[in-house]
Amino acid sequence: MNASDNKAVIGFEGDSVVYREQGTEFWRTPLATVAVIGEYTTANGPYIDDYFLVFVTKPERHHFHGSFYAEGRDALLASLTERLGTPVECGLCRSTQLTSRCMWPPSLAGRSLFRFTRGPVGGGWARVRRLVSPEFAFDYTTEVESYLSSLVDGNVQPCAAPL
Which CATH architecture has domain 8-112? Predict the structure, then answer.
């Protein structure tokens, strides 16, 4: 994985998925801790990022996201497909709305990852800013919550191939 000074870069380093922007590492997570892989889009494009890949970790249930447009994305998806033994494919490429989708595990693939709830509008300039660019809370859908709750001792069962 080569980090460019002016680009977002995503890929594997050993057994960890790593995301960098402008040469700075934003996050790193071992694939063994990933419980769900997904994607989401916003209506903010085309001038700012509006499409993201998401990695939900276990047992903490944290999610890490990185730009869909990051260098190394295609190689990462191919490597995930190989390591997980099942296709990990994007499905929101034409979306211009706030939406989300699970990509892995297969039992969740194609289903919504997040339930978006709009934050409070407030008053004054905050009201104007949020009308132009609303803020949303990202909560896992009931299906994703159920799946995360079903994981026994932090072990993800549906992985068909050894990591």
Answer: Roll (2.30)
